[in-house]
Specification:
The protein is α/β, with parallel strands linked by helices. It has two domains: 142 residues, Aspartate Aminotransferase, domain 1, CATH 3.90.1150; 235 residues, Aspartate Aminotransferase, domain 2 (3-Layer(aba) Sandwich), CATH 3.40.640.10. It has a seven-stranded mixed beta sheet, sandwiched between helices. It has a three-stranded antiparallel beta sheet with strand order 9-12-11. A two-stranded parallel ribbon has the order 1-10. The radius of gyration is 21 Å and the shape is globular. 47% of the residues are buried. The model has no long low-confidence stretch (mean pLDDT 97).
Amino acid sequence: MNPNLDRLHPYPFEKLAKLKAGVVPPAHLPSISLGIGEPKHPSPAFVKRVLADNLDKLANYPTTKGIPELRQAIATWATRRFELAQGSLDPERHVVPVNGTREAIFSLVQAVVDTRTPATVVSPNPFYQIYEGAAFLAGAEPVYLACDGSNGFVPDFDAVPESVWRDCQILFLCSPGNPSGAVIPREVLTRVIELADTHDFLIASDECYSELYPREGEPTEGLLQTCAAIGRHDFRRCVVFHSLSKRSNLPGLRSGFVAGDAEVLADYVRYRTYHGCAMPIQNQLASIAAWQDEDHVRENRAAYRAKFEAVVPILREVMNVDFPDAGFYLWPETPMDDETFARELSAQQNVHVLPGRYLSRTVDGHNPGENRVRMALVAPLEECVEAARRIVTFIKENR
């Protein structure tokens, strides 16, 4: 077996299950889960119709690059959304459809990392666990940049030692951040691009929460948008990941895309041809319908906005909690250690959250996830409000 498999950490939800082993929540309180970031809003009916109407495509092998119509729909959407120069995002060269961001993030690292030289993969801390696991299995070393209240949950890239950049082959960004919801501003993205040019590494920006911003007409900045703003229309050393899972409430469709540097993506497509992960054609056609419609996305944002506006004021009675820049998570501080908070909240109130330390690594004695929990506001509004009230009760009873 690949010895790097032994380097993989248990997934956060494995840790959570172990933490709550033996816990028996009160039977009179219905379970409310805020722990897993799985969208629960209805999937768009028109997307389901397209999928159902094209089940005959099960008889066809899909191609690695997907059908031209899907690549064009993605390029059209991204060009409009991120204010790119017309024609700069070529659907033939700059866009690769993928089976969700998890698969794409993992496989891109395998294709990019060159272990003939010392290789590191740098990521925010806390982080999406696939960044780390992909690094390990590619034979690279992960390096973690702390994101906490002291830096607004955005890494201080200028404080990173030159020795880290020297061996860096991939820098992961996550904006809006998981779990903080922090959005990296244009001036910081511009500085990161300068660092990539100086030290010759690839910037891989995970933007799967980009469409869940709180105020209509004020969308979040994306890496390709920054490229366009500074005249970098070839997107050199930059790739982004996007998904329909959160934007369109379609996590089961497993549909997203990678876009950016054409040279990187040409070799990535070659890797994927052998990897064997082409998107089924009926899923591609359903994806086209989703990328071409914004009405359902606006409805989705409105639903999350209503939950944040209802829940945050309730929690602020007993917790230090802020509205996120974007996304659907809250990242509040806890009045006790985060593991105890999560376990006892389950035991006493049948409300389930994820300890922050499970999303982070301890570096130099500091774990930026400690004494925080991630709350995913994915349940219906009424359940989110009920969960917030139970959390208030729990904290008051355990002071």
